[in-house]
Amino acid sequence: MLNRLFSLFLLALAAGAILLVARAPQAQFVETLLFEALSPVETLVAGPSSSVDSIGQTLTSIATLRAENQRLRAQVDQLSQEAVLVPELQRQNAELRAELGFHQQSPQYQWVNAHLLGYDSSNLVQSIIIDRGTTSGVANGMTVITPRGLVGQVIEVTPATAKVLLITDVSSSAEALIQSNRAKGVVNGSRTGTLTMLYIPQQFKVKTGDRVITSGLGGIFPPGFWIGTVTDVRQNDVDLFQSARLEPAVDFGRLEDVMVITNHLPVKLQ
């Protein structure tokens, strides 16, 4: 600041000197000398102003870049969220289409949709907890399915939740039949979570890839729900029956949403 004031003072003196010698015989010569002598001072005075302008332009550029950076980050965040949202919407759309297809094929059934809250924490039984209970019309004994196939049966219920015993549990069983040849049997769960169809009469030919569905016998599950697909057949000519191992129709490890059939309850056979 002091340098700038001093420079301005020198310029003022120079201007006064020019006026004083303007009429002297050597006026032009003196004027030239003065301007040459004072040119560094002019540069000194002009320099800070130029530097200030340059700093201002730099600050403006930084602010512009920061604004652009924030805008691009917002776009990236939005695209990232959309990348997560789109597959979820596609999954939900597929589930709704599957439910619509199920409704068209089985209009006799009524159900409530439920979401999986968790698995049984005790690991003593293979069961799940869903977010629908008595306030939604869910009751003990009701059949639980997905559009793909049979899940299990409601065994406990509260106003807001229900516990569902999976068909893969060792205590679970379902009267079933092989869809292709109508051979009847019983599908049991196991401690390892696999399914086995027992008591298949020997006269029926069972092959890998056969679908097994609920028969409706016994009155526990309604007929026609897909239980699983035959992956292995065990047959011995000396036995009265043959058995088959099944791959469940439902992928229980990826289960998220289910349907509880509300207009069918187990029939108590005397």
Q: Please, could you describe this protein's structure?
A:
- With 270 residues, the chain is an alpha+beta fold.
- The protein folds into 2 domains: 1-105; 111-261, Rod shape-determining protein MreC, domain 2 (Thrombin, subunit H, Beta Barrel).
- It has 2 helices and 12 strands, in the order H-H-E-E-E-E-E-E-E-E-E-E-E-E.
- The protein has helices at 2-21, 27-105, and strands at residues 111-119, 127-130, 143-145, 150-157, 162-166, 173-178, 184-188, 195-201, 211-214, 226-234, 241-248, 257-261.
- The strands form 2 sheets. Strands 1-2-5-4-3-12 form a 6-stranded antiparallel barrel.
- Strand 10 (226-234) and strand 11 form a beta hairpin.
- Helix 1 (2-21) packs antiparallel against helix 2.
- The chain is elongated and about 105 Å long.
- It starts with a helix and ends in a 9-residue tail after the last strand.
- 24% of the residues are buried.
